Recover the amino acids of this structure.
């Protein structure tokens, strides 16, 4: 099936009341596994890649791979440029036919964030490409294992309403106590804040830092307007730990077979998340 704008998938989720899972897919193998499991479970899915993944495959190569694989599976899917850090690279992704883009200026001053997203919207929307912005900063991953920390800044509901209206973004990532990475302590989500944001903001909301979040928190967040949930660190951790075990213990020195072994844990993670966010059977 042809890749579609992420907003096409999100609109149905918003109408019915579930979230679309967005998984970090850094190469062809992970894309293939993700699409296969999504098709098996009849779930829409968003494939994500961004600046951290482009050293493996540049935007054009990533998009070509995604389009080729998506055509093999009868499941609605989108290709999302995640945590973009420049208009230039965002433009490169739209040229490569990514169907969704995020310009993450959340660490910049409010005015600069707004101006950047206005430019992103002007560039992407005429191409029917979904645009995601972020207001309030979700903590960055420190070392790929622990959750991000000191940079977090919670989203203000009034600012979020103004931001969505001024920029014209299709969906908005919010900070309510969520962080990127693997949580070392249970997150404390500010659900009252999320409810106020949901009531004030006219576009679907996005939760970054989904990995290892307790299921009750995920379900409550969905009930309060979260319609896209990003998952990356759980997938990375699965592959990384398997490869370390194999190579430190001289189990499997051949890279292709070692990687295939490491990827065996991914389907269970994908299935668990698809069930958790309520997207199973929604394709």
């Amino acid at each position: 099936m042809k890749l579609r704008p992420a907003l096409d998938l999100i609109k149905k989720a918003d109408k019915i009341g579930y979230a679309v899972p967005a998984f970090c897919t850094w190469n062809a193998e992970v894309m293939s596994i993700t699409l296969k499991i999504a098709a098996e479970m009849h779930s829409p899915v968003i494939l994500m890649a961004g600046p951290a993944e482009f050293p493996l495959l540049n935007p054009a190569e990533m998009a070509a791979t995604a389009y080729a694989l998506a055509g093999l599976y009868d499941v609605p899917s989108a290709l999302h440029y995640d945590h973009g850090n420049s208009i230039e690279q965002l433009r490169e992704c739209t040229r490569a036919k990514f169907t969704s883009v995020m310009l993450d200026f959340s660490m910049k001053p409010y005015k600069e964030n707004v101006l950047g997203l206005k430019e992103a919207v002007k560039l992407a929307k005429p191409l029917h490409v979904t645009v995601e912005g972020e207001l309030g900063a979700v903590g960055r991953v420190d070392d790929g294992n622990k959750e991000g920390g000191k940079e977090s800044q919670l989203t203000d509901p009034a600012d979020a309403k103004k931001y969505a209206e001024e920029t014209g973004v299709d969906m908005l990532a919010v900070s309510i106590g969520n962080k990127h990475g693997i949580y070392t302590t249970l997150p404390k989500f500010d659900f009252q804040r999320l409810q106020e944001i949901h009531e004030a903001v006219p576009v679907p909301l996005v939760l970054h830092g989904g990995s290892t979040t307790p299921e009750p928190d995920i379900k409550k967040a969905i009930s309060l307007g979260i319609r896209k949930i990003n998952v990356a660190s759980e997938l990375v951790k699965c592959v990384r730990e398997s490869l370390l075990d194999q190579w430190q213990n001289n189990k499997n020195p051949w890279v292709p077979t070692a990687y295939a072994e490491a990827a065996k844990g991914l389907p269970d993670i994908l299935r668990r998340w698809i069930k958790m966010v309520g997207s199973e059977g929604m394709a």
